[in-house]
Structure formats: structure tokens, C-alpha cells
Amino acid sequence: MKKLINDPAHVVREMLEGVVALNPGAVLLANEMVVVRAGLPDVAERPVAILSGGGSGHEPAHAGYVGAGMLSAAIAGDVFTSPSTDAVLAALRAAAGPAGALLIVKNYTGDRLNFGLAAELARAEGIPVEIVVVADDVALKDTVPAERRRGIAGTVLVHKLAGAAAARGLPLGEVAELARAGAAAVASMGISLGSCTLPAVGHPGFVLGDTEIEVGLGIHGEQGVRRQAIAPADALVATILETMAADGRFARGARVALLVNGLGATPPMELAIVTRAALAWLKAAGVTVERAWSGTFLSALDMPGFSLSVLAVDAARLALLDAPTEALAWPRGGALNQAPLSSLSPTANAAPAGGPVSPSGAELHRVARAVAHALIAAEPELTTLDSVTGDGDLGASMVRAGDAILALREEAFPTVCTGLAALATTLRRAIGGSSGPFYATGLMRAARALAEEDPPTNAALADAFAAAVEAISDLGGAKPGDRTMIDALEPAAQAFRDALARGTPGSDAWNTAVQAGLAGAEATKSMTPRLGRASYLGERALGHPDAGAVAVTVWLQAIGKAADA
Fold first, then answer.
1. Sorting pLDDT into bands at 50, 70 and 90, what band is 530?
2. In this structure, are residues 82 and 58 in contact, taking their beta carbons and an 8 Å threshold?
3. Which residue of the set 220, 365, 373, 544 is catalytic?
4. In 333-373, at which residue ranges do the beta strands (DSSP E only) sit?
5. Which long-range contacts (CB under 8 A, 24 or more apart) does 78-82 make?
6. Alpha-carbon distance 427 to 435, whole Å?
7. Is 373 a catalytic site residue?
């Protein structure tokens, strides 16, 4: 286990100290794990206090939601452990006034017991207290009665509703009723790609196979209601929303707010894909999404996965969601883009010249397809090599290149020149990163060199090859010995030209070039990188060939095999 902590026994206190250090609107009680809104009015003038909390490990919940317009105080227990009764009572004493307090409690036994007892003690002291229990986990719809379902990420939406209602100055009974109705109107469900690791335990709570996921899990590292094979994001989103629909949570014509929540280790990229899928599914189902947010709102430590929460809304509830708050973790906004796609079209490149396809153009098309298949087949090797000294994306980039080449029809190759130009345009569009510009530049330079050659002579091909290598070197600044693709390209181009000058037949000369390229790529194992991401590794890159140079040898060999066929 690797954690950025000091001592497992002190993670909660140190975490809370870090949270309040960045929030001038919150303070931490000296003797309790309680964060209270700073600058509260005098006790007699305080509106209804909104309090929530639970075990730690759900950050930014709950301390991140302390602020005007949301929580008055948040109570933190140990990781995944309910806070004590005394801590909850301390929070009530610190935040509440004669208007009373509302406790928002997730439906777990420990939370209900400790918050419930604290409420009784506070009432005995003359503090009016109401409790709202959130039980929004629809994954348990076929397992337990509705009132025994778990409370998960939908709780954050209830925080917002209650906080906005209290900020309006409404009495405790009305605030509690609005929160209670909100809790009944929200449905949530989660899916995990793996477990999480408690700092004091040091190992995951459960282990999944490489292709397994947990469906319908809670927020404490426990297993879900079932285990299944991984599926595309669209299918997982559909699983959740279909479960909600089957539970009667929405139907065609409904208006809802959507919360897409990361469970702790899910990157924004994946949450955005999930959001896209959820919005599309709900639209297709005839459900109007009035507000939507995506991010990590209530996590389970470092768990990879997500949950969806859907809250039925009307104008009154939307007004509460839209009301301002100073809570730092609330995302604001939520309005959807009603015109997400631009109607503007970029200027298209001129289409390649038409006309009949020359024999040499057809041959180039055949060879290009052979290269495409070879690049796709080499993906595992290239990914592995690039993961050692780069960012691991070269294999995927070469697959995109191969797929794009295979999509080109023979009509794009009326001559060798136009065929190379078509390949340049295709690779420029298909490959991101550095590979796309390099290959596109080389192919464009080679195309210009062969503008007057169809069919090109072997000598003209050698000159075009050398021109392409020079263009790539000029673009990136790489020279032989820098541990880049140039270390395979330059010796191959030189060997091809030299062999032809000696009178070697074209196919044999190309085989000589292939061997020189292979030797050049092999030599990169002992070169200290000077350019690209590998240069950041210095001598740690030694012993591994440069992935870009190896990719060059893949297509060099593919050209040779196709030419001999």
C-alpha cells in the first residue's frame, strides 16, 4: 500500500486541518473532529442549522459542504466509521440556536444511532432537532425494504436543498419537510471497477479479476449486489438508469437533476464519458435533465468507479438547487448546454486529384494496406516499449494510423505522389501527439519529391526516402544518436541509397535498408535519450529500444514483405 499520509491514526485530524486551512469560511473545533461554518450570526439570530457527517474517506464530503447556503457543520468519524455521539452533540452546540437544527443522516446503523442519541441529548438541553435519513441506493431495491436502503451520493443533493431552505429563514419544520421530500425523491446507484484501501488496513477490501466489476455497491469499500464482466460505459450507465426506472423513480415526461459522482479514483475524462451517456439515455427515455453536475462529490477513498444520482425536480426544488452557497465543494452552475455542437465547418482540404489509378498508384495502395496491418499487429509490443520510456500511447497511435490507412480507397492513389499526399493527410488527422506531424511531414516531403515521377525509379524512391527523413529531422530537431525514430530512419535511407548506387536490385537494396533500420533501432538500447519524454528518464531508459525507432522497423519490414509478394 502506498498512501500520502503520516500516521494512519492521525489521518482524519490532519485531513480536516488541511481542509479548513484552505477555507476561510470554516473552522475546526479544537477537541472534536467537527468543522463549523465561520462567522455564524449571534446564537439568537441564527437560522436553522444544517448538520451532516459520517465516517471519513468520503471527501469532499462532508467538510467540503460547510458554508453559507449549505451545511452549518460537518462531523467526521474515523475512516468509514460513524462519528461519536459526543462529536455530533458538540457540533449541535456549536452551530445551532433557538431556531434549531436539522441532522441529515445517511442510512447506516452507526450513523443513525449516534446522530439519533445526540439529537435526544440536544433536545434535552433545549435545542430543537429534526432528523432526515437518506436511503437513496436503488441497487438494493430487490434486497431490502425501501426504508433500509443505504444512503450514498444523493445525500449531497439533500444537503443543498436543506441548506438553501434554511438560508431563506424558513422554520425548522418546513426545512425538515423540504429535506425529507428531497430525500424521498432522489435515487442513486454505483458501480466499481475495483476496491479501496483503508489507511489503517493496508490492503483492498475485496479483489476483482482483470475483467470484473462490482455493481450496486455502497461507499465503504464493501462489495456490491452482484459481480459481472466489465462493459462499455454506455452499457454500465444504462444498467443504473434502467434499475432506477424499474424502481419507479422517473418516467417519460419527468424533470430531473443529475449528479455524476466519482468514487475517488475515477479521472474527469471517464466521468465526462459517463455524463455523456447518462444525458443521452435520459433524453432518449423522454426525461428532461434540468441540471447536471459531474465530479467527485462523495467518494470511497481511492475506489475507481462512479455513481449516478437522479433527483426529481420542479420549479421550487430547482430554485433551491440554484440558490447561492459558499460551500467550496459544491460545483455551482449545473445548466446544460442546449447547443453543444458547433454549426461551423472548418475549411476542407482539397480532394485528391481524380482520374484513373496508375499501376504504381495501385501498388502503393496495396503496400500501404500491408503496412497498416503490420502496425495494428505490433500494438502490444509498441505499447509495452513506449510505457517503459514514454507515455504508453504509441501502440494505440499506430493502431489509429493502421485503421485510417485501411479506410482509404484505391481511388485516393491515382499516382504515387497523390497517394503519398493522401497518406500524409490521413495520418495527420488520425494520429495525435508527435507521431502524426512527423509521419505527415515525411510523407508530404516524399510526395513533392516524386511529383514528376510515375512510375518512380528506384533512385527517385531513394531520394524521396532521404528527403522524408530530412524533413522529420528538421521538424523535430533530432539527429542520429539522440535515441529517436531518426536512429532507424537515417541508416535505412542511407543504406537503400548506397545499395542502389552499387547496382543492387531494388528489392535486395530495400532488404539492406531494413537490416540497417533494425540495427539502428537495436542500437538505441545503449543511447541516452536527448529528446522527447524519454529524455526525462536519462540513464533509466538504457537497455530498452526506442519505441518510435521500433515502429519504423515494423513498417520497413512490411514494405519489404509486400514488395516481395
1. confident
2. no
3. 220
4. none
5. 78/12, 79/11, 79/12, 79/55, 79/198, 79/199, 79/200, 79/301, 80/55, 80/56, 80/198, 80/220, 80/221, 81/55, 81/56, 81/110, 82/54, 82/55, 82/108, 82/110, 82/111, 82/113, 82/114
6. 9
7. no
Q: How confident is the model at residue 121 (pLDDT cuts 50, 70, 90)?
A: very high
Residue 311 β-bridge partners: 186, 257
- Average pLDDT of the segment spanning 1-8: 90
31-47 average pLDDT score: 96
Whether omega before 199 lies within 30 degrees of 0, making that bond cis, reads no
Look at residue 348 and tell me whether its pLDDT is greater than 50: no
| Residue 532 pLDDT greater than 70, yes or no | no
When comparing pLDDT for 223 and 495, which is higher? 495
Which pTM does this prediction carry?
A: 0.82
Q: What are phi and psi of 143, to 5 degrees?
A: -110, -45
What is the dihedral sign for C-alpha 158, 164, 168, 169? positive
Tell the residue number behind the cell numbers 435515487, with chain if given.
Answer: 187
Does position 350 have pLDDT exceeding 50, yes or no? no
All 3 cell numbers of residue 144?
431490502
Q: What is the pLDDT averaged over residues 40-55?
A: 97
Cell digits of residue 208: 476483482
Mean pLDDT score across all residues of the chain: 94
Per DSSP, which regions of 29-163 are E strands?
34-37, 49-56, 73-79, 101-106, 129-134
Q: Which of 508, 514, 519, 513 is nearest to 494 (CA)?
A: 513
Please give, one letter per residue, the 3-state secondary structure of 201-238: CCCECCCCCCCEEEECCCCCCCCCCEEEECCCHHHHHH
